Amino acid sequence: MSAQRDSLSARLWAASVWTLVGFFIVNLLALIATVVVNSLGTRWFNTWLPQGFTTRWYGSAWDEFQLGDVLTVTFQVVAAVVVLAGLLGVPAAYALARRDFPGKRLAMLLFLLPLLVPPITFGIPLATVLYRADLAGSMAGVIVANLVPTVPFVILVMMPFVEQIDPRIEAAARVFGAGTGRLFVYVLVPLLAPGILAALLLVLVRTIAMFELTFFTAGPSSQTLVVALYYAVYAAGVRAGQSIDAMAVIYMVTTLIWLLIALRFVNPTQIVGRAPREAR
């Protein structure tokens, strides 16, 4: 009798969880579908579907919001953040994974803080510092601001990949005369290539979607797509809702494509699973 009650409770719990998940997914898909359909509709008022469909709102959004320039700035910022985050984060991850030194736990805590604290919490003080340094309002300021959370992110992702490599491989390379630089370039980087690619692709997606830090530090000529979308919605003036939704669809598609590419190269479970296996 007790086993039957436990089995019934387990089934009810599973059904409740799946119902909640299904409700969330249906609402999310309905929200996305509404934006996509409205971006293609000629007129939509008090009906299930628009009166007609057209793609002219995408051309209107492209011209009205200068999306060509915005996308160029977005890709320039993203490319710079990805390259710099890789150059800074990968060596730092190797040092933290391989070396024990006084204050290591404190250093790890400092690296993880930008990931644990909401960006808006440290975004305003960071923007203040960048304005005093005459960096805010420029592309350089946007890049520096985005590096604050992305470098720790690369470190967090890369450390399990570094710990997976057998230290005896590095010792053998040093026996054959490889210095630190040659060891890193010719031995470690090829072995770490899948992890580096995964980390940098996730940084790319994260930077495209980063709103708060970019919003606080961007100027008129250094707005990324997500900030331009915000201004399109809330800036003064009357704009066609279909044009704004078309811009939102462009943003969603851009982010989704890179996210799918990132997930093609990284299995999220390997990031949390490799370190415990190595520890054992």
Helix and strand string, N-terminal first? HHHHHHHHHHHH
Q: Kindly state the number of beta strands.
A: 0
Integer count of domains = 2
Give the helix proportion (percent range): over 70%
Q: What do we call the CATH homologous superfamily of the largest domain?
A: MetI-like
Q: Which secondary-structure class do the elements indicate?
A: mainly alpha
Outline? globular
- The number of helical runs is 12
Mean pLDDT, nearest integer? 85
**From the alpha-carbon coordinates, what is the Rg to the nearest angstrom?**
24 Å
Give the low-confidence spans: 271-280
Here the CATH topology of the largest domain equals MetI-like fold
Biggest β-sheet: count, sense, barrel?
Answer: none
| Proper CATH architecture of the largest domain | Orthogonal Bundle
CA-CA gap between termini: 41 Å
Q: What share of residues are in beta strands? A: under 5%
- Please give the CATH class of the largest domain: Mainly Alpha
Task: Please tag this protein with its features.
single chain, 280 residues, mainly alpha, MetI-like fold, 2 domains, 12 helices, 80% helix, disordered C terminus
